[in-house]
# Entry
Amino acid sequence: MNRYSTLRSATAALLVVAAMAACKKNEAPPPSDTAAAAPAAASVSAIELGKSLTADNKIATPTTSFGARDTIYASVSTENASPRAMLTAKWTFQDGQVVDSTSQVVAPPTAGGSTAVTEFHISKASAWPAGQYKVELFLDGASVGSKDFSIGS
# Structure
């Protein structure tokens, strides 16, 4: 084999190796330990009903039975909600008739926590009709839970 043949063979081999290296897929780097975790999704963690509230908008004594002249409070605990998250309470009578529907921005979380407690209530100057009722809660338009309750005569 002469010197030029050897040189051509070596050059061809180098070209093949370079072409194979160029065709190799780029692999993603391993995940970094310093990468920020995605924030948790907002959710409703509790819905309670009662006749009165504590100073932090929680139900003083939870109940699902009310009198005809009671004000009905709903306390909604929300986790990881954005500052502009919207809660809606839709109150309905047993036949599906809407009694009230109210929306409000989620209350700010308690100091040092991620839980916010928002209060809704309904009242009536005259007596409530006796029967079965429901309050359904929506977070940014999506249903997140409901509570059934009754009003006696």
Remarks:
- The chain has a mean pLDDT of 82.
